[in-house]
Amino acid sequence: MKQIFKHIRSAMEGFISSLNRDPVRYGGYAAILTVGMALLLVLVNILVQQIDLKFDLTEEKLFSLSEESLNFLKGLDEDITVIALYEEGKAPRVVQEVLTLYEKASPRIHVEYMDLEKNPQLVTEYEKEGERLQQGSIIVKGEGAYRIISSYDLYDINYNSPQGPEITGFSAEKRITAAIHAVTTGASPVVYELVGHREERLSRYAMNDFLERENLTSKELNLLQEGEVPEDAAVVLILAPKQDLTPGEADLLDAYLAEGGRLFVAADVRAGELPVLNDLLSRYGARFDYGFVIEQDRERHTGNPYQVVPNVEYHDITKTITQNKEAIVLQWTQAVKEEEIKRRNVSVTPLLTSSDRSFLRKDLEREDIQRGEGDIPGPHTLAAAIEERLDDRGEKKTRIVLVGAGTLLETLYPFNAQIPGNLDFFMGGVLWCIERKDMLSIPSKSLLNLPLSLTATQVLVYSVVVVAVIPLAFFITGTIIWLRRRHL
């Protein structure tokens, strides 16, 4: 019996002695630390599940509402019901998330999910001529009006892609907030499109539906026939005219602007110089500088020096674009030149600018892209906002937006799509002209990726970092750890 106890005691002493060895002690510490970290992670996970806390880490903030929407929703003074027509459990997660954000943003908003097949009475109640209800539609209902958002309107879709229809953006917030605005105000400002000079039409770019979703109405305006700008004009749009104004038309527009009118002009360099239009604009402090800008900074073009990716200056027009870091692409753009002499109450603010490596090509017959004689070095203003205060308190004012690219709304190669940033700039400019504080310019969440342009130096640096520096850092770290453990 004594021998047995002796062996047991000896084994215990050996075990205790082994625990005092460095490798075992360190291993024990590591095991305790691992178990402790696992328990901590479990505890943190349980606590997080109890807290309604989420972070939107998507680059385009797909699961967040913009500041414009949040501010607008805080001011709602009537109840809004949002009915999402989906089969039970079939609503896309991203749509559910957005609708949940609306409910949280305002106690006035109530969201319901209904299956259209199980509730056919909705067709009788809400369907009207020109609009059909279908699964995936969203009904926004106020106290006296409603709007229907089709499932297709929740996304920006490019139908011109060679591979077939392509989703380029998620626009649920834009559509829903605009619908809420429409049913609570009932107002629909009128955008008059000037015609008679071979201008491009908004309908060519599928923009009429776009304006309607933003609670705007578009109409034609032929000044030679009308003899004046209609009183209900919120803004006059001149989009890529191919012929100049007549002096009489310029005088009519001048009379309209002098009384606080609003004008948006996108000029097309391919139309040649437009002296009458430029003379009108010069009276308000700026004009188009004929020629097209060639960008030689590789970070400021798409790979095509004639497609400028301009610097976006912060302004009410560009606020959402800068906040969302959207890209704008201007193809064959003229410069906008501020006049040295202008009226005291006139301010000209650059919105889009080229780099100091760009230049304005004046001789359009030249085909090379190198700066030569007669070219004007940059940077150049490519779009500008003009404002003239007409009274001491600034309550009455004239507003004009000038864009040097008549291709602003075009489908551009190689993207085979309209550029979302261009569309948002256009809408931001129109809404700034209108000066409706309750109107909102909310961008779509862009899903379109512009090509990454890198200089040769940047390519070399990134290659060295990825191929050499990072692997070498791992090798050195691993070697140090191995050497330390070897001597434990």
UniProtKB/TrEMBL annotation:
Highest taxon above the source species: Bacteria
Pfam family, one: DUF7088
Residue span(s) of domain ABC-type uncharacterised transport system: 216-413
InterPro entries in the record: ABC_transp_unknown (IPR019196), DUF7088 (IPR055396)
Keyword terms: Membrane, Transmembrane, Transmembrane helix
Annotated TM spans: 26-48, 459-483
Residue ranges occupied by any DUF7088 domain in the UniProt entry: 59-144
Protein name, entry field: ABC-type uncharacterized transport system
